[in-house]
Request: fold
Amino acid sequence: MIPFRPEPIEQMRDRFEHALVDVMLSGDDPRVLEPQHCFDFDDGYRLYVSRDQVTEGQFIIVCGGPIGAQFLPVALVAARVGINFAALTDLKYGQGSIVAFEPNLVTMAFKLGGP
Reply:
């Protein structure tokens, strides 16, 4: 596991595009756990970011949640994941959709290239 190391948002923005270079072909691609896909925030949340190809097109997939926290409601975790992703990307990708969730972990999808 990658140690939790929050970074200033500017540093994370500088390396964000590197997380989108490789296209993942499945949700269980182990490359998503590599450091270039990992973004740690001061609020205790970690996001894993990747670009995935599915039948419907390409999406940015964001999987995230609080590190080491007690159980939190899905709506709260999803809101923080969305807020952190918006801060990371400066709102470039609009609103995402929740595609999966489990305790303290939410996966969201943001469509690339179109509605």
Q: What stands out?
A: Residues 78 and 106 are 6 Å apart (CA to CA). The first helix runs from residue 9 to 16. The mean pLDDT is 89. DSSP finds two helices and six strands in the chain.
